[in-house]
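Q: Can I see a sequence and its folded structure?
A: Here is a first one.
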Amino acid sequence: MWPRRRYLDVNVPDRAEYALVVVGVVCCGLTARVGGSTQRACPGIDSAVYEAVGVDPWGVRVLGVELPSLALSWYDGCNWRTNSLVPLALGLCCLVTAAALRRKSR
């Protein structure tokens, strides 16, 4: 008979860890990507990075964190934005949980 092949040598807790890492990274990324802005025209920024990502990496500044409303105010190099910190907190919780599961399993 043919020997039994193992295509995935990953057990269920490992899959849960990987899923938590993916969810955590996506949630943390949503914090910067989703949110309100003034959407004004940016004549001085003709960058492929700004067009692709929506942020000018050289002009990003954090303006303030409002803990009672769980909001982050920041400047993306062209527009002022206010984003919720809930996706960031959820993403960080997922990443910390994945790290704790990894540490516990070893």
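Q: Show me another, different protein.
A: A second, unrelated one:
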Amino acid sequence: MTKDTNEDYRDDPDHDEDAIADTASRGADRDARSKLHKLIAIRRLAVRSIHLPFAAQLDLEDALDEALCGAVELRDAGLQQAIVPILNVSFSGKSSGAKHYVRKKLASLEAGPGTVPVVYTKVDTDGTVGSLAADILRGCGAKRPYSLSGEKRWDRARQTIRSKGVCLLILDEFQRTGRRPTISPVIAGKILDIVDEGDCACALLGKTEAEQVFASCADLENRLDAPVRMPSLNWLTDSVEFMEFADAFDQALVDADITDIKSGFGDEETAQLLLEASNGLIGQFSRIIETAVIAITREGQRIITRQDLSDAVDDWAVANRRIGYNPFSKNGDDESADQDTPGFASSKAVDDEGEH
């Protein structure tokens, strides 16, 4: 029997046009959401890849470079190596500055086969001699860093430092070594052995709680170099530097094809509120801007407005208890008629468009 090719399926009681359309719509929605999620991931990466050194980070890089450059000479002379303490609160730019320095150095130094002149590693939360040895081995690219017992593992870490030609060892989150008060003096002594015997220079990054570890070993404390200060930025003393930084970050978003024009981050009023909202910490500033970028991406926008910045402060800084209020909301600022124009409705964002 020949099937009628002109059969109208709409007459079929099991045929549901609305259900078919709904299924197709859900599929399209899933595709759209998937594309949006990928775009957000790409833009998050782009924001986090922005590196604009400010004065304190340049001081950090100088201190690391001095320790690195002097390591070979001190080792050859049989003299103790440098120990550079770099301590401050979270989001002050310690880790990002150190990581950027390591990437830059490893890309530029002409290291021999199998050598790693600069090693960055993060201290494990265990805060033991064995875990620190594993951290160092992992940073050096050694296989099976957790093999062997604590002391033997430490001996292996020391041997690896020498065999890999490490000149500078950067230990981040160093305050974790003070987690166990009975162990921290032992760890401090182990670090002292590395520098006293000329293995390599060390930079100890972390929160100020790490000072307790230094205090537990007077010999280590006596050998510390001058600390690198990375204080929070203050509007009265650092306004010019921060406005330049914020403006450069604004331009970087345009260069990364995230926004079409600059949003006025570097304008005086905007910058002052952003500095206040971020507690003077570059890392917090970056997270606020990242939150705003994600929000405008979800909305399909390509410009960051005053309201977007205010919302980002609420969504990230206030919600995560970094600050107890929103500086953008003071004196009813959020209700102003110009809240939806970039850069606080200043003409700078428009004027700068021709520069891109």
